[in-house]
## 1
Amino acid sequence: MASVSTNEIFVYKGVDRKGNKVEGEVSSSSSAIAKAQLVKQGIRAQSVRKKPKPLFGGGGKKIKPMDIAVFTRQMATMMKAGVPLVQSFDIVADGSENPNISKLIKAIREDVSSGSGFAASLRKHPKYFDDLFCNLVESGEQSGALETMLDRIATYKEKTEQLKAKIKKAMTYPAAVVVVAIVVTGILLVKVVPQFAETFSSFGADLPAFTLFVLNLSELAQAYWYIIGGGMIAGFLLFGKAKEKSEAFASMVDKVSLKLPIVGPIVYQSILARFARTLSTTFAAGVPLIDALQSVAGAAGNSVYQKAITKIREEVATGTQLNVSINNTKKFPPLLIQMTAIGEESGALDEMLDKVANYYEEAVDNMVDSLTSLLEPMIMAVLGVLVGGLMVAMYLPIFNIGKVI
């Protein structure tokens, strides 16, 4: 399977079947394969060469998951309007403001034009289109309902990215509080407290214990601020690297994240929403339940629930009902289990799971809004305590002198 990194853009000039001069770009792994692709399109290439790269970087914005969601929605809209697939690629690519997403769409268009299937073309770009996305597109191609499937995928991607944005918002706010508190405290200790220390050096009386503690902390911060700052940055980077490389460490972090106050319930609700949304989408697309559960496990986003869903899949494969298997894990709430049971009995599992997904997505939205409202006064309180505490420590000796006088 080729990846996006192995393909390059080639610029060609040649003539078409009618003898007209043509020129353009084609995505391929080599110039020879590029020429073969052009022959299939009825173009006799006179020159094929690699497109030169820009001198200063690649230009354009990075392709984000939401860009893929927008691309999918646009393709679904075009096809529902009766626009042919290849022409839809051209319209969407030309309308994109991001050169990188436009280049990606054109590469897919070239593959489809040369005879590849839509899903097969997407699989060449696994960085942007995962197995779930490609499998659903392939299912749509085989059933002859590609425009309907693209519409479902677009809805799924939009809901998923909106949920991720809410979680990111919930995680960013507490992090912002900590960062602001550290920066403000650091500035006070390094720049402000030393000014008071010079004044206190002329005092004959002993300084209060709290003041001495802050002065010692200030001296430590002045002497080792670069080590403290570098250590914090290094610790953050090492944490991310360890989570990426060590499965055991990542699993431990996932477990802890579910138990954190305030943030934990948001993570839990988001996992439930993702589980219901992914299973609803895949099942509605006609994907067999066993295969659908495999996709759901991969999209869980948490190792604890990934293992639980894998266990569900194993039990379902042996003939156990889905709601019974979910209940056996002891990881899912009664509401989800009951709705799944109703869906199985009524033959409308995808509809029931869609309602469950909407419920938990709304719950996450409300919890994030509540967290935002709660943290706004908390930021002021934390900064007030830090700044006020340092100022009190600096003014205590002055107050004591005033009392003696």
## 2
Amino acid sequence: MIFYEELNKYRDFDFEAFFDGIEDSAVKKIIAKERLTQLDYLALLSPAAERCLEEMAQRAHSQTIRHFGRVMLLFTPLYLSNYCVNHCVYCGFQAHNSMERKKLTPLEVDAEARIIASTGLKHILILTGESRRESPVSYIRECVGILKKYFTSISIEIYPLEEEEYRELIAAGVDGLTIYQEVYNREVYSQLHPAGPKRNYRFRLDAPEKACRAGIRTVNVGALLGLHDWRSEAFFSGIHANHLQDSFPDVEVSISPPRMRPHLGGFQPRVSVSDKNLVQYILAFRLFMPRGGITISTREGKDLRDRLIRLGATKMSAGSCTAVGGRSDQESTGQFEISDQRGVAEMAKAIYDHGYQPVYKDWQMI
């Protein structure tokens, strides 16, 4: 079964009625279980479960230590291009926004890579806007060839590809994929993507499975919190990750729970997602998928990120920059504002201070 078919089972699901039926006693029983069902996971995302966050946190902490140890993998993003043909109303790079459009040359890619590599990082995530003309697969493959000189793990966060295109980039040296569905609710998705290739909901939804079939090593999925009801979006993100883990047991699967940040264009979140909401999501996911990774970006603030070190996170970005060539060109416009401005060394110290080990490298390309 593909995930689209699994998702369809919940097309008319009444989340409100389900949550109304959840009591504290049921939540406590679920927290103690070794294996959770999908509806168990949903119960941990309920308003009733907010009263049990301390118990969830203790269990999540022990599960994370059991499966991952006291370590935190560090990485950083590198934006290759901000050309985009989509009209996503919530994105700073969308085609309607007036901004300087830029694509890094091979020499500029090398220069940015040198700056990042000097921090000691060995894992990198490369990003582009969605423009096959300005950032074709051949361009991304060329950039990967340059980056292989500096990094042992290269992940991509680009437009969705066909299976053979993923296979081509994997052969070139890509080993990870991050791709957010943005919002799983189909009606809301249509409203937020009025034009451009990203309007194709199904093509985006199928992308992680195509990459897994092509032989990708790691996959990271999720929803952009603030576009729709966070509880249902967290639920769909979690069962999406679980589906991938069950279908492709050799692939390392993780989720990201990014919240909207200020950006060029000024789109305001449709719903508010508090720190408490975010923590509940992370704890619930950890109990649902004890071996699933949880990636926390610099969208979140310093204090919250420090607290999340002990609450289930397994991977964090550091020394981030969301502008194309922004490490060597301070005038570039970023996709969104970064909240945690700490560099790699400062982030590593914070991890050490919490009794954890920062990891710069856990994978070596052949």
## 3
Amino acid sequence: MGLDIGTTFIKAVIGELDEDDNVSVIGFAKKPSQGLRNGVIVNIDAAVAAINATVDAAEQVAGVDVDSVFTAIGGAQVESLNSEGNTVVDDRSDNYRTLEITDAAKGRALGASTAISIPMGMGMLHTIPQEYFVDDLPGVKDPLGMMGKRLKVKVHIILANETALDNLKQCIVRAGYEWNGIASKTLVAAFATIHEDEMDLGSILIDMGGGTTDVIVMNKGTPVFMASIPVGGNLVTNDISRVKDIHVSIAEKIKVESGCCWISGGDEGEEVIIPGVGARPPEVTSQRELCQIIQPRVEEIFKMVRSEIVHHANLTKLNGSIVLTGGGSKMPGVVELAQCVWGTTSVRVGEVSDMGGLDKGYREPDFATAVGLLDDRWKSRQSSSSRKSSAPNSEKGENFLKKIGNKFWNNFF
């Protein structure tokens, strides 16, 4: 089971291996979250209760009992950096002899890349090779079996706050389940929604959550940059609440049912009824007026993400797509607004692969992380300090995401 414990909702997806070792989804559920603030667990008892309610609902759909789970961590609790490591291929001699590169040599190079100083309180979650260099030959994806004297590797290291990891594990254990492993939310969401060709070309995934907006940049098939913006959909709800002077719960309901962040031309959109409070009668407004509240905040979030990437990713151009996931990506008009901010038409909402089942609700963008946890690719890149056990090999189902050919945003930096 993949369990995505978010600020606003908890999502659970249960999969099973078929006779061809492919994962099929047999049950899933989504329930309101409790005990979290901006992605951080602040009340373990409340979080445990919400986890149990979500898993129970997924188990009823699947018709099975789950004993263990994979889960994910994101937000400000996760950081990343790039590093590199060098080694000689022949470690038994002082001479630089040309030998065949083995798993042992790869392991030494990777070990050297992680021999770095990391911030206090942080632990390594993933170590992901970006490219290898065999002597003076760059850009090698897998040097195994090649001949060389020296081996160098560039890696992307994802770190997670150790206290946050411990609290997350504690929630899983107290809920009565075995913890099998923890991954980066944006990494697994990227594997679930971005086509491999898009990863090679260079793409950006923006996970629009309730408490935070997380981003990961994929280039040449591997992550090169991650960031978390401490604002999300809850801030949009608060804006509606303040402007319309209504309770947050009513504002959230209006946002989900009638909210949009892009209306073109003179279209006023549908009529929106704001319930009365106390002696105040109900108010009739338009979707356009609601959009005027929502759009500036969502636009601000996109601009903050863009600024982070421009200043810290060290990239000059990307040729792939901007993929939107998370609950915020389901709001009408979000693609059009993102296209406007980024100056490209290569923007789409992320949809995960069809992995069976009569109900395809798990393909919605807010399930990207939970479904991505069923994918084995992140497990092979998990640092040993964070890996509890391995899972059987599995292949993703058919990926329905189409290759995007639009190049308009090549030079947006």
## 4
Amino acid sequence: MAEIEGTTRRPTYRYVTGGTLRFGDSGAVTVGAQAVTVGRDPSADACVADPSVSALHCDLRGTSDGVVLRDLSSTNGTLVGQVAVREALLVGRCSIRVGNSELEFQPAAPEIVDDGEPIDSFGPLVGGSSPMRQLYKTLTTIAATDLSVLITGETGSGKELVAKALHEVSPRRDGPFTVVDCGALPSGLAESILFGHERGAFTGATEQKTGAFAQAHGGTLFLDELGELPELVQPKLLRALADHSVKRVGGSQYESVDVRVVAATRRDLRRAVNAKRFRDDLFFRIAQVHVELAPLRERVEDIPLLVAAACRRMDRSDAARRVAAYIETRFRRHDWPGNVRELINVASVLAALGDDDVEDMLPVEQGRMNTGSTTSAAGFVQAKKEFEEAYFRRLLDTTGGNISEISRRCGLARHQVRSHLRKLGLMQ
């Protein structure tokens, strides 16, 4: 990818301060750049055999500033000394209390962590910042395996693109990439959508149907918004992952499936495990590898590259420098709550319409942009609606209604494109 003016190059390494966490009579784990989980569950990195400790109680992660300790909505809380904390930065030796157990943390000298080659993209992913290079290294390492992967990150940060990138560099690249939006699964049909059904299995089942697992045979099954999966389906999903076989609703025989499962969620499933809303055994089965996607505000140096990519999708590469300069000036203090999706939408508007008198039409979350604009909320909502309708009409016209192509050009997932089109009355 050509370098865009304004792009900041970071070195390929960084310093991370970690340490050692001691627990029990002789247990110890090293804390580094990867998160270390403390809990009662045997699958926790630091397993504390104490009934007052939550299944997944807290975690620790090394950063350049020190070790970040986070409580995971535990039942009895996490204390540093005598202070209960939700999140704390550990910079010296200290005692950590979880339930009735005492842990000892000893910091270590900072270590150099190599972020890999200074590249700007990886498949459909764009960005050359340290968090993105770390992500590329992880995806390269796990690509050849069949380990299940859990991708976490805020809405709009690009979790589906991570799943696609992993699929495209894996040995399964020639197989199907099947997407299931767990947040849109009707509770009564979730099992059928995932595993299929036999004819006559329930009212309306007029023919045999193949489920998502069978459709993804030989490829990758992407379960988006896994945190929204109905609780009644969770044990059946666990069995499918453990046994590599599924049974259609109304059927009597299990059939083998060769599928790699990649899941994503904007929720912290470890907190959901503690709250008994998500099965702990399913969490550990599906999170054999945990990939956390950094929000855009933590990798703002990627903005010029992302703007250039958005302009290419609009066939307006010539506008990339102008759009990047406008965003740098007008959005300098914006925290991008919609992440990459919000940036792509803003860049698309600016590329299509120019930057004169378009501020009221920019698809930016109201109240989160510090630009001095005094536009009323009602005016913003109406302008946003008018822009979206014109924008999607243009995409429908130029793509001949091809949903996959619209998805590629606007940076939204296919189900999100359909949702927008239905909301705007442009699709039944």
